[in-house]
Input
Amino acid sequence: MAVCNPRETYFMRDDYLQSALKVVEDPNVLINVISQRVKQLRRGNRPLVESLEKLTLEDIALREVAERKISFALATPEELARRR
Output
């Protein structure tokens, strides 16, 4: 699966992607979680997983999800209504 970036194209490792999809089953939700985490990592937040290999920020975020190092919560309909 390629994630487009205006500067480059990254290819996420399929093994990390499949592992993360076992934790977050909805691919649309997973993409949002990964996107938000990559933004945090770009701003300087430290990774929550260690690796001896050079990983892209996307792969780091996928590993964090797969290893349940980060969590997420979906907004309830009431919370969404309050935001409007």
